[in-house]
Amino acid sequence: DSPVILKILQNWVPRVSHYFDKEHYMYAGHQIVIQESIEHFGAVVWPGALALSQYLESNQEQFNLKDKKVLEIGAGTGLVSIVACILGAYVTATDLPEVLENLSYNISRNTQNMTMHKPEVRKLVWGEGLSEDFPVSTYHYDFILATDVVYHHAALDPLLATMVYFCKPGTVLLWANKFRFSTDYEFLEKLCSIFNTTILAEFPESNVKLLKA
């Protein structure tokens, strides 16, 4: 099947301050307020997160997250994890240690008064300590979510190893990324050689592709 051609909808109102930047979004009937930090790449909302959030909201029959176990790798500001939580998933949001404070703040702030499953925030360094921190005997996920994780070229092999580690039979990986460099396409080729991969949607104005593996 050909990928759907979509446009990232302008469903947020930017609020600018000198140091922290709060963005207001609307997904799945909920206003989501995201605090960004200019100190870290991971603490900014990238276009892949907007694309995947929009797709999950619009395709709930195709990808029903209710009561599913969802792991987001490279969760950044937490927008995608928050949307998955609103859609009823058991969410574990992970990222590097220096990003966790802002990530935890955004997730708790946007999910604290809701009746869905309480999300979890955990440290995950790609390719490091996976079997110790997430033993296969205990942790199994229905969905792995990743957005704009392919940009730091030194981390691509550990990233792929992490995706392979968490993807067991029956697990669906949803990866949205802004394609900027030749290395992005090289990573996609490696992914396709390991996984059964489909391009679900493309957002040409943003150079974002959304893939299912």
From TrEMBL:
<keyword id="KW-0949">S-adenosyl-L-methionine</keyword>
<dbReference type="GO" id="GO:0008168">
    <property type="term" value="F:methyltransferase activity"/>
</dbReference>
<protein>
    <submittedName>
        <fullName>Protein-lysine methyltransferase METTL21C</fullName>
    </submittedName>
</protein>
<dbReference type="Pfam" id="PF10294">
    <property type="entry name" value="Methyltransf_16"/>
</dbReference>
<dbReference type="InterPro" id="IPR029063">
    <property type="entry name" value="SAM-dependent_MTases_sf"/>
</dbReference>
<dbReference type="InterPro" id="IPR019410">
    <property type="entry name" value="Methyltransf_16"/>
</dbReference>
<keyword id="KW-0808">Transferase</keyword>
<dbReference type="GO" id="GO:0032259">
    <property type="term" value="P:methylation"/>
</dbReference>
<keyword id="KW-0489">Methyltransferase</keyword>
